[in-house]
Amino acid sequence: METRANYVLIGAFTLAVIAAAFGFVLWFQSLHTTKARSPLRVIFEGPATGLRNGGSVNFNGIRVGEVVRVKLDNPRRVVALAMVENNAPIRKDTLVGLEFQGLTGVAAISLKGGEEGAPPVPLDEDGVPVLTADPAALQDVTESIRATLQNVNRIVADNQESVKNSLRNLETFTGALARNSEKIDNVMLKVDGVMLKADNLMLGLNTIAGGANGGELNLMVKSIRELADDLDKRTGALISDGRRTLADISRAVNNFDRNPSRVIFGGSNNAAPAEPAAAPPPARPAAPRPPAAAAAPSGQKRQ
């Protein structure tokens, strides 16, 4: 029981915190909205066709507020209460009217112009700023709507026969579709068959180009690459053998050029050619002997 009671307290506390958070957010948003906008009462001395709650308030075409309430003050006057941004430059001489988005769009309060130095909007008895719409502007809007509707009516009247022919052609076309519904079904079946074949073709292309093992196209490319690598290796070996053969041929040609008899009649390539015997040096002439000394006279001793 105590555990269950604790769960109840925890759940209640959690719900209270969530509710307080939502309340704070809503209060903060309403406070921010209240500070950012202020009420504006607009009086229409005549009909305000298309004006309803939630309509826009535009100043020179820019949305600055929203209509929150529309009521009839008397059979000839409509009073609209709007919330308008405080930074909107609305003055006493600002022109008020209605504008429409398209032919059947919701009407919006249109605010235009006003001098920058003009006084602010006058206050009503309850302190809410109030502006009165320009009857001429409302009359212009009404006249524009009527002129547009008249133009549309005139276009339809002038092209009545063409409209009838178009409707008749449309009826003929729908009747032909109803009569040929079976043929159309057959055509659609053929189209489905063509689409199925196209799907099968795309699956086949996907199998060729991809798949779990890389696809047949990938295997083909791999085989071509391996063949090219093998051909490259064989070509390299063939080029190497050709170079060695050309070197042997060049060596044989050089040997033939140096000693053709050896190439023709054979011989040891390692035996060195015999050198000629060295000639004996020339004999030198004998030196002349000196003359013998003259014999000394007898009786004298040789000193």
Strand content: 15-25%
Major pleated sheet: 7 strands, mixed
Helices and strands: which structural class?
Answer: alpha/beta
How many DSSP H or I helices?
Answer: 6
Question: What's this entry about, in short?
Answer:
The protein is an alpha/beta fold and 303 residues long.
What's the SSE blueprint?
Blueprint: H1 2-36, E1 37-44, E2 56-59, E3 62-74, E4 77-85, E5 95-100, E6 107-112, E7 130-132, H2 135-158, H3 160-179, H4 181-209, H5 215-258, H6 260-265
Parallel strand pairs: 1-7, 2-6
Antiparallel strand pairs: 1-4, 2-3, 3-4, 5-6
What can you see in these coordinates?
This protein has 303 residues and is of the alpha/beta class. The protein has a domain at 33-134. It is 52% helix and 16% strand. It has six helices and seven strands, in the order αβββββββααααα. A seven-stranded mixed β-sheet has the order 5-6-2-3-4-1-7. The longest helix has 44 residues, at 215-258. The N and C termini lie far apart (173 Å). Residues 269-279 and 291-303 have low confidence and may be disordered.
